[in-house]
Amino acid sequence: MARWVVGDLVCTHPDRDEIDAALVAGEPQRAVAKRAGASGSSVQRHAARHIRPAIRAAVERHTELRIGGLADRLAGLAADAAAVRAAAMATGDGTLTLRAVDTERGVLNDLARFVGLDPDAVRADLAEASAVMDALLVLARRDPAVAVNLAAELDQLGADDLASAVRSITGQPTPAAIPVASTRRDNTA
Predict the structure, then answer these.
(1) What is the model's pTM?
(2) DSSP readout, 121-159?
(3) Which residues in 9-24 are b (16+ Cβ under 10 Å) and which e?
(4) How many CB atoms lie within 10 A of CB 99?
(5) pLDDT digits (tens, 9 = 90+) for 50-65
(6) Which one of 35, 40, 154, 185 is most buried, counting C-beta atoms within 10 A?
(7) How many CB atoms lie within 10 A of CB 41?
(8) Is residue 153 a contact partner of residue 162, using CB atoms and an 8 Å limit?
């Protein structure tokens, strides 16, 4: 028969590890006490004074690993979407490029939410940007001059991937590199 020490019933309970884990995980003390067949006051006393630091540290490490793992996975998914976008651009597949851009944007939105940015504000900004892009693409398909101007503006802004995607969807060729005349003088003569 187990020896029970007065005032320390939870510490000597046969299910102490499970009780400690439940308390560290934030389960309500009353529910833990009921499940363990212990009084609420003994579980409360144990939670306040006797939860072993090793269990708490293990749970914290596990949580940190899960959080770090999630951030790494989200960053990996964003990198994968960027790689698909680059491959689609290389093959001139504008539709796949825009899908990859949309996927990458979604993953980055998840990552932003993960690091604490306001998801509603991010979502509203992304919805507005998506609506503007959709409207511009409709206009670009209807009027080649709009497509040319849109691609040129995107180039000026450094959004080469989007500019190429606009050109691809509208059937515009990607502009060839313009040779620049050298300003270097040949002083060997």
Answers:
(1) 0.32
(2) HHHHHHHHHHHHHHHHHHHHHH-HHHHHHHHHHHHHTT-
(3) bbbebeebeebbbbbb
(4) 15
(5) 665 656 666 566 655 5
(6) 154
(7) 11
(8) no
